[in-house]
Amino acid sequence: MSGLGEWDTDAPIYDVEATSMADVDEETDEPLGAPDIVGERVAAEIDGLDLAAIAGGLVAATVTSEIHRQVKREVAPIVTEAVKGVLTPERLDALRQVAAAAAEAELSPPGEPEVVEDDVPTLYYGSVDEFVREFICPVFRRNVGEEGRADYRWSARWWESAEAITRLEALWRAWEHLRMDPSTGISVWLRDHADHHLGVLMSATGPWARSKDTAGPHEPLPYEAPPAGLFPDVRDA
To answer: Which of 3, 13, 158, 165 is most buried (CB neighbours < 10 A)?
Structure first.
């Protein structure tokens, strides 16, 4: 239809009056021409279809479905039997244990990690006294002495200064930690710890400013043992 109340002039029109009595079904009084037109159109549509392609697609889908069904029917028992052979009682117990552990970990809140003593590195030096005696004094050799004779200060009785003990203890603990880094650990210790704390301790305004202990640039720094028991070996604790 081209508009409201108008007929589409392109649509085929069946003229009932022009139809003869011979074109009318005697039993139904229906014109015989109309079904013929529909039949012709259906036939034309069918003739335009690729029947071979349609048939081929249906056959392929049917064959594929049948193959899957038969494979599943034949293979499933084989797989089931193989799984039974592999899943021994021991393996089933192991799977149960893993599943139980996973469930426990999921349901239990995380706690503090358990510290295994074997994972804690052993201290190389047992005390700050040992660290000073065996590392600081022989390694950091300086020309130390009284004011006016040398730029650096040092005291063989370093343990008489609370500041000196604190800074040397910090140096020792930092060294024990950073020595475990095989790449840049010692470099970091020298830059961030040794250069700073030794610079303060050995300066003309540090805790040993009035010390008269001397040593040449190629000699170990002066050392005097502290009172017995002042710095016990913590490795024995």
So the answer is: 158
Cβ-proximal residues to 185 (8 Å cutoff; 6+ apart), any chain = 178, 179
Instruction: Please indicate, yes or no, whether the overall pTM of this predicted structure exceeds 0.85.
Output: no
Query: Within its chain, how far is the Cα of 135 from the centroid?
Result: 41
Rounded Cα–Cα distance for residues 47 and 64 (Å) = 28
Nearest alpha-carbon partner for 197 in 176, 156, 169: 169
Specify the pLDDT at position 16.
Answer: 45
- Rounded to an integer, what distance in angstroms lies between the CA atom of residue 31 and that of residue 19? 7
Which residue(s) pair with 3 in the sheet? Answer: 6
Mean pLDDT along residues 89-116? 68
Tell me how far apart the alpha carbons of residues 125 and 82 are, in angstroms, rounded to a whole number.
60
Q: Give the residue with greater pLDDT, 97 vs 124.
A: 124
